[in-house]
Design goal:
heterodimer, A: about 425 residues, about 0% strand, B: seven-stranded mixed β-sheet, disordered N terminus
């Protein structure tokens, strides 16, 4: 299993930390500059939105939700793979391949949820009242409406974020302590020392750590299922055609993990290349990620099938006309089918799963496809609702695009910072794995 | 009303800090010099003790009158703290009978329009009206030319008579969409121009030939009411035959409709008249039959029906049809013994006075005063500019600056109808007293003021109107009747007496010419249902009002049938070049099912240059010349976006707006029972106690005239968003009129507004309880709780909710018009129809004060009040003996999208049509 790993603890240690401490390369600086620019774009677009009103977006009267909610669901979905890998695979004792990427994917989760969290706030007509979604002790005794899925959403996403951060941080402690101990300067020792919260690596500490980590994993694992199920309720509890179906929760969860693994592959391949970590993030890791992409992709495809079958079988004219024949964006629909149903079928072949360019291309297709899936569900259902007189058009504005690409930039920006300043490989776990 | 208590309403100006300091300095200097007093400005006196007729917060209603193209329309003006805020038809006025028209509702906005002209000008310099009036009083006798819309006011008539004694007076009554042809047609058969008014209450068969009489014309609201009264399914249900080149509101509720080019109507009428026994020369009949081709069968069926209903028919001919067609219709009326009232026209000179062409040709026109019209824009062929330049003095008097203002030496701001005294006659001759509801906002002059100045009369308009009505009656005795007339808004017993005239007419060469074969495409110009002849183009409400047929807002288009469009290879929004002998224009095409082949309709009133918001909106069609002409049509390069409020007209098999025929009513009605009532539900049945509100809408008698839509805008402070935002699907109207067309071309107009569902899908999805149910059955929107998630809109199957995407209200310059009982919404909140909750609560408050229950019929929603046909009824579910109660029991009632189980409080009555059975 660990044949490719370094032969001693010290070697492994130096290998990872040494790469981290190396001077920032030109690649990193360029990437940092570009993602920084997109982050600024995000700031500008969101400020403009708050200043003028969400009329600067393309949303309109049949399509009252569009890019913001699509992006929200997409980013939340991406986050799911991280928790899946770190919690569910941990509980299933898949440490042999999960450990090398667990830190990377947990971090991905946190940063993705951060992007997602922007949208429910900024898409509001009056974002400064977003806190009304939470049951805070109000002097007027007003309370959120618990029948609506949006307070569920607020609760689910904030829980998910909190648990993910705790889980991520707990796993981080031994490595932070290790960094503290090996920091070349006092400044960094104080920095990492504060973060390490006095971790000393003694047996008692490890014992408690193990229990805490296991408990957090047990809490995080059901969240993988519940969060996206709740997110899907935003649609499933609605009357809108294409939204109102009990299929949504499993279909959304599978889709989330599907896109999440695609994002893991998209992130892991460059990290492994630029940091020369082929012996840590091995081909086998990528291969397994590809297999999971394939499986969840098949569940998603089954979802598409059932969605259409349901519309056909119930005979509901509204659903039927939406699913068959009245597509407003048929190009988006067929591209989605290609990206999510057809492209991942290549993963049946081992050669494809072992080819990094192929993995990269298919994963990008999946990410695009899953974004399109949310577009097709949300926008098309609204544009072809029950009352045909109100049917309309939707097209995004430049601000919509700015925010979408801005969050991609911000995500990359945070990720690059993380790669520079924190151990993105869980060294302690690898040590344990390799040297028991 | 215009007493000193009323605050002077000064123009609002944007003031920066610098300006403020400058103004302060200037103001102090002016005070020092003792010259601050501006004409018309008085002290501010707060209501320390309320005058008895004013109660803060309680609106006061005054009767007044509006004038359009010479005819009076009685209105009731709601004023809040001396601000008029809302207009409604005066039930006592015969032209409206309490109903409204879209423009009538929208006229309130003009009063406060910031684009209104505020200062009189002479040769480029600001001049005060009193100064100009003095100039007019001192005018030496000589040639004087007045150009104004037709007039019916006796006061104006008397003043014109007095002017004619001093000056060589010529008057051109200029109304681009006037009724001259109808009067000329009457003149052909009766020897004198007469007003022909069919009695729709006695008509079993109504024929509209190129006439939108239910939504257009000086008595449209009254005619619509009379027509609708005979529309209940049953033995007395009338039958409406419509032949028209373009779909109109009247055409949408036709039982038998023929899409026919307007210039082929003469042929149609010849065939019908001949079949009914009118003596028409054989060559004419043969020519007409040749012209009609296969459509002769329709004409013969119509003739059969008219003969069957002998003595109970009505034939209405459109104003743009040539006099010969009107004449023939009168002969047909006479032959069949149809019930028509022939009365002397209410207008001073129904044939239009001196033609405007004469002014264009006149070498020395003397003084020319253009009052309340824009002939430079509406009659471009006459090139009036040079004639106005030749005048010794040319003056334009208007509400707005326009193309004619630019061509005249001087300009005087015109008083709005609600700022001055008028006494227009309704089409039946009934005199209405238009009293001001607010003091003049600027230094303005009314038409009466200008004419009075010309005769050197220093009396104000009130005195002139008062004295004209008084005549020789003693002052004391007259006082009571004057007050009564002011209260009622109409002067009793002033309707014209019907005359008994025998028609005689021999068809002439002109008729033969109308029947000659034609080639080419018909270019038919039509009035715009919103901006009229262009005079309402500065009115943002009317610009944003969706066209009743095309649902276009902010502009016009070349309207054509699908086949015509196909033959040209154009689609919606493609630019086309339309050319006639007179001129050519380029504008976007719009395809309308139900339009006649080889006929293109273009609406007038758009493409102006002067008034700010109308600038560049739509395309000016006046350069095309005659109303009905032959022309050519070609595709031009490019497209232009048409902002529309409805894009899809098929029901897609959903239970939204069923249509049935009278003959099959018995089989169809049981199906309606499946479209109403509770659906099986897992939720516990909700108990409704106390007063419960509901609405019923009869789609059978909705013409789509859109008066309700503007009434709602005026009542509920609904924002105007402009063409770009409309095109992006952000129109704010709470009430829209959905128009569905089935495969057979049959149309249903369905006013769609919040259905106030008992199990409202919007309510459970709102995360902050901003939309909730009241105990009396209203779906309520709590603006200050709304955070704008828009989930409610997504979940509303009727899509009736509207979102404030921006701070729309900041650009909506109408603060003085706002209804103080309705919250002005700002950015980021959802809004929708409230069933006029402010009126419900107002009635409840009155009831509490007076220690009683809310009376049946006490609450009338704005749309209900505006509807000329009574299609919209509102009331308490438990009430008895009212039209609303009858509709709640009508077997035609259904609930839209009933299968969703939303249990709407708004019910509809299915549309019933009464086509002629084939033998």
């Amino acid at each position: 299993v660990s044949a490719e790993l370094p032969q001693s603890v010290g070697e492994l240690h130096d290998d990872v930390f040494g790469r981290m401490r190396a001077r920032a390369g030109m690649h990193w600086l360029i990437a940092f500059g570009i993602t920084g620019m997109f982050t600024m774009l995000l700031v500008v677009c969101l400020s403009w939105t708050v200043y003028k009103g969400i009329g600067v977006w393309g949303t309109n009267m049949p399509a009252a939700w569009a890019f913001a909610i699509i992006n929200f669901v997409w980013w939340i979905g991406i986050g799911h793979a991280g928790t899946f890998i770190s919690a569910i695979l941990y509980l299933l004792e898949q440490g042999s391949w999960r450990n090398s990427i667990s830190r990377l994917t947990e971090t991905m989760t946190i940063f993705a949820v951060m992007q997602a969290g922007l949208f429910p706030v900024f898409h509001l007509g009056r974002p400064w009242f977003a806190y009304w979604l939470f049951p805070y002790p109000d002097v007027m005794a007003v309370w959120p409406n618990v029948k609506s899925a949006l307070p569920w959403d607020a609760a689910a996403v904030s829980t998910y974020f909190t648990v993910s951060v705790l889980f991520w941080y707990t796993g981080f402690l031994p490595d932070l302590a290790s960094l503290r101990d090996h920091s070349p300067s006092r400044r960094w020792r104080i920095f990492y020392g504060l973060l390490a919260m006095g971790w000393r690596g003694d047996a008692r500490g490890w014992r408690h750590y193990r229990v805490a980590y296991l408990m957090l994993a047990s809490i995080a694992a059901p969240l993988v299922i519940s969060v996206h199920s709740v997110v899907s309720s935003d649609f499933a509890i609605g009357l809108t055609p294409g939204w109102h179906t009990t299929l949504q929760p499993p279909y959304f969860v599978a889709g989330a993990i599907f896109s999440g693994f695609a994002m893991v592959i998209v992130l892991a391949i460059p990290v492994r290349f630029f940091f020369q970590l082929q012996h840590v993030i091995t081909d086998r890791v990528l291969d397994n990620c590809a297999k999971l992409t394939l499986i969840t992709g098949l569940i998603v495809s089954y979802g598409y099938m059932m969605e259409h079958f349901g519309a056909y079988y119930t005979g509901d004219p509204t659903d039927r006309s939406l699913m068959f024949g009245l597509h407003t964006h048929s190009f988006a629909f067929w591209l989605m089918i290609f990206c999510n149903v057809i492209a991942p079928q290549a993963y049946w072949f081992r050669s494809v799963r072992r080819s990094r360019p192929a993995l990269m291309v298919i994963s990008l297709f999946v990410l695009l496809g899953m974004w399109l899936e949310r577009f097709v569900i949300i926008v098309q259902g609204l544009l072809r609702d029950h009352t045909p007189s109100a049917w309309g058009h939707y097209s995004p504005t430049i601000v919509d695009l700015g925010i979408l690409f801005g969050t991609l930039g911000f995500f990359g920006f945070l990720f690059l910072l993380f790669l520079r300043f924190f151990p993105f490989i869980p060294v302690s776990e690898l040590k344990e794995e390799a040297f028991g | 009303m215009t007493d000193d208590r009323i605050l002077p309403l000064l123009p609002r100006v944007e003031v920066t800090r610098r300006d403020a300091l400058k103004l302060l300095a200037g103001g102090v200097a002016a005070l020092e010099a003792g010259c601050l007093e501006k004409p018309g400005e008085r002290e501010l006196v707060p209501y320390v003790i309320e005058p008895p007729e004013h109660r803060a917060g309680v609106p006061v209603r005054y009767a007044s009158a509006l004038t359009l193209d010479g005819f009076g329309y009685g209105v009731l003006v709601d004023t809040h703290e001396a601000r008029p805020t809302k207009l409604d038809g005066n039930p006592a006025h015969p032209a409206v009978l309490g109903g409204s028209l879209a423009w009538l509702q929208a006229r309130i906005l003009d009063l406060y329009d910031p684009q209104r002209s505020r200062v009189a000008q002479l040769r480029g310099h600001d001049a005060a009206w009193p100064h100009l009036a003095a100039k007019l009083r001192a005018l030496p006798p000589g040639p004087l030319w007045l150009v104004m819309p037709p007039q019916s006011s006796p006061t104006i008539g008397a003043l014109l008579g007095r002017i004619a004694r001093h000056h060589q007076l010529r008057v051109s009554y200029h109304a681009p969409l006037g009724r001259t042809n109808a009067y000329r047609g009457a003149e052909l058969v009766y020897g004198k121009p007469l007003e022909v008014r069919p009695d729709l209450s006695r008509a079993d068969v109504v024929v509209a030939l190129d006439s939108d009489f239910l939504a257009w014309g000086p008595a449209a609201a009254a005619m619509a009411r009379a027509f609708a009264a005979r529309r209940a399914p049953g033995d007395r249900m009338n039958r409406l035959w419509v032949a028209e080149p373009m779909q109109t509101p009247t055409g949408t509720i036709a039982d038998e409709r023929l899409a026919l080019p307007a210039r082929d109507l003469a042929a149609l009428l010849v065939v019908v008249a001949q079949a009914c026994g009118v003596a028409v020369p054989n060559p004419s009949v043969r020519a007409a039959e040749a012209r009609l081709g296969g459509r002769v069968a329709w004409a013969r069926r119509l003739a059969t029906d008219l003969k069957r209903a002998r003595g109970a028919g009505a034939i209405v001919v459109g104003d743009r049809q040539p006099p010969e067609v009107h004449a023939l219709a009168r002969m047909l009326d006479h032959e069949l013994g149809n019930p028509v009232a022939l009365t002397p026209p209410a207008l001073l000179d129904p044939l239009g006075g001196t033609p405007l062409e004469d002014l264009a040709r006149e070498a020395n026109p003397g003084t020319v005063i253009v009052l309340d019209c824009d002939p430079v824009y509406t009659a471009p062929r006459l090139h009036l500019g040079p004639a106005l330049a030749r005048a010794t003095l040319s003056l334009h008097v208007g509400l707005f600056r326009n193309a004619t203002t630019e061509a005249c030496a001087g300009h005087v701001p015109l008083a709005h109808d609600l700022e001055t005294w008028t006494d227009p006659r309704a089409v039946d001759g009934t005199l209405a007293i238009g009293q001001p509801a607010i003091r003049e906002r600027f230094e303005v002059a009314s038409i009466i003021d200008v004419l009075a100045a010309l005769v050197g009369d220093r009396n104000d308009a009130r005195t002139l109107v008062h004295d004209q009505l008084r005549g020789d009656a003693p002052l004391e005795a007259f006082d009571a009747s004057w007050t009564a007339a002011l209260r009622a808004g109409v002067v009793p017993n002033t309707a014209a007496q019907p005359t008994d005239a025998q028609p005689t007419w021999r068809s002439n060469d002109a008729l033969a010419a109308l029947l000659a074969p034609t080639s080419g495409i018909e270019i038919a110009l039509a009035p715009s249902p919103s901006v009229h002849d262009g005079r309402f183009a500065p009115n943002a409400w009317l610009q944003e009002l969706p066209h009743p047929i095309t649902k276009q807002t902010w502009g016009n288009a070349a309207l054509m049938s699908p086949a015509t469009a196909q033959s040209l290879g154009v689609e919606n929004e493609d630019l086309v070049r339309v050319a006639t002998r007179a001129g050519e224009i380029t504008l976007p095409a719009m395809i309308v099912t139900g339009a006649a082949e080889r006929s293109v309709t273009i609406e007038l009133g758009f493409g102006q240059h002067a008034p700010a918001i109308a600038d560049g909106i739509g395309t000016d069609a006046y350069p095309l010349g005659d109303f009905l002409d032959e022309g050519s049509l070609a595709r031009a390069s490019g497209t232009r976006r048409i902002p529309r409020s409805q894009l899809w007209t098929s029901q897609e098999g959903r239970d939204l707006a069923p249509v049935m025929t009278l003959a099959h009513l018995r089989h169809e009605l049981p199906k309606m029972a499946e479209l109403r009532g509770p659906q099986p539900s897992l939720l516990p049945e909700r108990q409704w106690r106390g007063v419960q509100w509901g609405m019923s809408i009869d789609t059978s008698i909705c013409t789509g005239c859109s008066a309700c839509e503007i009434a709602c805008v005026a009542e509920n402070n609904i924002a105007t968003v402009g063409p770009t935002e409309v095109a992006r699907g952000r129109i704010m109207h709470w009430l829209r009129i959905d128009r569905y067309v089935d495969d057979g071309g049959r149309i249903v107009n369905e006013p769609m507004l919040c259905q106030h569902c008992e199990d409202a899908p919007c309510e459970y999805v709102c995360p902050v309880n901003a939309t909730d149910h009241s105990p009396d059955g209203l779906n309520e929107q709590v603006y200050n709780r709304c955070i704008g998630t828009r989930f409610c809109q997504n979940n509303c199957p009727y899509k009736v909710r509207r979102f404030n995407w921006f701070a729309f209200e900041k650009d909506d310059d109408r603060a003085l018009q706002y209804n103080p009982d309705v919250t002005v919404r700002s950015r980021g909140v959802m809004e929708k129809c409230s069933y006029c909750v402010q009126r419900i609560r107002g009635a409840e408050h009155r009831a509490i004060v007076e220690k009683r229950e809310v009376k049946v019929g006490e609450v009338v929603t704005a749309c209900q009040a505006a509807c000329p046909t009574g299609a919209i009824q509102f009331g308490q579910l438990a009430e008895q003996g009212t039209p609303f109660a009858a509709m709640r029991r009508d077997p035609r009632r259904f609930e839209a999208l009933h299968d969703l189980g939303t249990r709407p409080r708004t019910q509809y009555l299915a549309k019933v049509v009464n086509p002629k059975e084939e033998p």
